[in-house]
Structure formats: C-alpha cells, structure tokens
Design brief:
eight-stranded parallel β-sheet; single chain; about 260 residues; TIM Barrel; binds manganese (II) ion; about 50% helix; 8 strands; alpha/beta
Amino acid sequence: MVKSLKFGAVISRGLLEPPSFARMKSLGFDGVEVFLWQLKAEEKDAIVRRLRDLTRDYGLRISDIGGGPSLVDMGIQAKAEESIERGREFLSIARSLDSPISLMPSFMAPPEVKREEVLKRAAENLRKLDRFAQMEEVDIVIEPLNRYETNLLRTMEETVKFIEGLGTERVRLMADLYHMNIEEASLPFALRRTGGLLDHIHVSENHGGLPGTGTIPYGEVFRILKSIGYKGFVSIEFHGYQGDLFEGYGKALSYLRLLDAIL
Ligand SMILES: [Mn+2]
C-alpha cells in the first residue's frame, strides 16, 4: 500500500523562471513536469543548466520531460532516423536532470499511411531506442490520447498490448484521465489493467479543468493507484483551463492532497 503520493504539474517552456519554481514550491508541489517543445540542439546545454539550477534552488524534482519524438515520428519511415536521434537526446537530457521519464505522446498519423504499418515501424524503432534508455536508465513513457488527437493508441488495453509486444525493458505507459474519460468504457477497470507498466499519470477533469469539479471518480482512482503500489508522480495537466494557472494548480493540489490523506 502506497502511503503518500508525489504531486507535480506541467510547466511550459515560457515559465522556466525562478518565480514559477518559487510559486510551485510554496504551493507544496514535489516536482514539475517540463515540456521542451521544439528544443534546438544549440539551446540544449543552456536549458539543462537552467533547469538544474532551478530544481536545486527550489528543491523540486523534474517528474518527466516532454517534447521529444512522438510515436508517429517513430513510425514514419522518412522521420525514423532523426526521431531515434532526437529520442536519444531527450533521454540524455532526462538523465542529466535526474528525471526518470522522457514522455512520448501517441499523436496523429497522416491519412496516407496505414495505422498498422506505423505501429509496426514504431515498434522496431522503439526497440532500438530502448537500448539507449537502458544505458541512460530513463523510461520512455507512451501516452495514449483521445480520438481527436491520435489515430494510433487510445486505450490502456491496446497500449499495454503494444508495449508487451515490444519485449523492451524501458518502454512504459502513462494514463491521462482526461483522454481516458473519452476513450475508456470503464476508467477504474482500465487503470487496473495498466498493472506494473504504469509510470506516470496526468490528472484534470472530464472538462479539462480542476480535479474534483467534474465526473472523474477520483476516490476510486486514488484507491486503485494505492492498491497497485503506484510509485510515479500524479501530475496536473489542464486542457483548455481558462483560470489563473498557478491559482488552479494550488486549488487542485489541495484537493488531491486531501484525497491522498484520507484514502
Ligand atoms: Mn496528458
């Protein structure tokens, strides 16, 4: 039984500054999730240095980094080599920031390619990237999305099967309750199905806003996370939330910590 969960929230590239980290620390977060979209090779060292300083100065962990190649990138022949290289780069960035995870969202394959072929090629390339993940001791974590954002992997069930078919050591799974609310017949059943592969979780609501203000069965979600011995971060990621970001993060964290304490 897990006694206490770790909490984080997404910080976009434009917010990688002391005031954001100070705010996250004072709100009581354990870590932050960083998306390095469109990171250019020449920016890498400076960003890593800055994040090292920020996490040290404010005593926050980096739960995971995003912005590396997507599953689609890995599965399109013309992009494969470049995507593996970029995947390696993100694994090494994660390693140097002591982050256990490099995220890999599913995303949308173009209509001219067959889904099965994209998945087959992505599997071959993931096996190659897995060797680097083993060396860096960082997990590649696949994020299934909802039908409006991906035509590849949408449910926990199909993603677990895909990962099990890879035979890799470091490719694992994440669950985003917002996407799951659209795709899963039963959210609790799907969460239980993730078993030992679950590395990371994104929380918001069915409407993308504050946890606890919609229809996601949070009590049940927390009981399941604890019963499966979940050790990763619970990370807040809003979808289209209109309020003040940090105020929202603060309210969300209070609710999530309360559930964590009573369940
Ligand atoms: Mn997400």
